[in-house]
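Q: I'm building a small set of examples for a reading group on sequence design. Run inverse folding on the following structure and report the sequence directly after it, with nothing in between.
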């Protein structure tokens, strides 16, 4: 089963969200409240492999991603 990340919804000004991981079936409805505490939650959508910036941080030659990457015109 996939693991989903949730964050608490702050109820007071200045309160920071807390993060939780739950294993759920893909067909389960997202939680709106923490199953144990009842604290309001929302599901956090995450990327899978990171952010594509068009630059390879290991190279100093402009915005090319590198040989064979397919992102250089």
């Amino acid at each position: 089963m996939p693991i989903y990340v949730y964050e608490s919804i702050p109820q007071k000004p200045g309160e920071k969200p807390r993060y939780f991981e739950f294993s759920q079936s893909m067909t389960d409805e997202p939680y709106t409240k923490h199953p144990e505490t009842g604290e309001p939650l929302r599901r956090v959508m995450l990327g899978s492999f990171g952010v594509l910036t068009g630059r390879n941080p290991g190279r100093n030659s402009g915005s090319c991603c590198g040989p064979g990457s397919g992102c250089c015109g």
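The CA atoms of residues 37 and 44 lie 19 Å apart.
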